[in-house]
Amino acid sequence: YKEYCKSLGAAAPDTPYGFYCGIDDNLLIVNHSTGIGTTTHELIHHIVANSFRECPQWVNEGFAMFFEKFIGHLDKEGRGVFSVGYFSNWRFPVALEHVDKVSLRDVVAYREPCSVRSFMLFLHRKGLLKKFILAMPRDGTDADGVRTLVKVYGKPLEGVEKDWKAWVRAQPVNGEVKLIYYSFFLTATE
User: Fold this and answer.
1) Is the pLDDT of residue 181 over 70?
2) How far is it, in rounded angstroms, from Cα 88 to Cα 181?
3) What pTM did the predictor assign?
4) Predicted confidence (pLDDT) at residue 107 exceeds the cutoff of 60
């Protein structure tokens, strides 16, 4: 990964994890030592790029971060079954630490990535993430996504923020709760 990034020179983004090279190059570059969650993150960027002409950065990154934590297994017919919507072992504690310092406007401005992921997880747990993503205009007419968010959630932004922050604070993340450290896929026998 490091050698490939060096070969790109200034064109390589400064990240130890991985990156997506866009529709023209159609290339995912992933540091395999960071785990399979990085691969799913970058793959979601490909899906978003092919689904939206323009997409707010917080939606693009938040949706990709949402898919970093998953559990999968093979069913009896050998098909992969994925389960998503898990807390991140490192992103959620950061979001919890920053919940009183970060506003939903900060999330929309993509100022604190861990809070963006917690917001996507919040929407998922409310049963609204899919509805929000499907409602986002594909042509960039909602540049920051706020109009769509307010419409889907059914409350003004201040009400959405209040609910999100209350939800983050209420999560039982402590020594008793085990967070998923790695995304993984099990075979039928496992």
Assistant:
1) no
2) 7
3) 0.86
4) yes
Closest alpha carbon to 161 in 96, 87, 98, 102: 102
Q: What angle do CA 49, 51, 53 make, to 5 degrees?
A: 70
The answer for 140, left when phi > 0, alpha when psi is -120 to 50, beta otherwise, is left
First vs last C-alpha separation in the chain: 30
H or E segment and range at residue 74:
strand 70-74
Amino acid in the structure at residue 133: I
Contact indicator for 19, 44 with CB cutoff of 8 Å? no
Place 177 in a pLDDT band, splitting at 50, 70 and 90. Answer: low
Question: For residues 70 and 86, what is the distance between their CA atoms, to the nearest angstrom?
Answer: 7
pLDDT at residue 178 above 60?
A: no
**CB contact set of 141 (below 8 Å; sequence gap of 6+):** none
Secondary-structure breakdown of the chain: helix, strand, coil percentages, each rounded to the nearest 5: 50, 10, 35
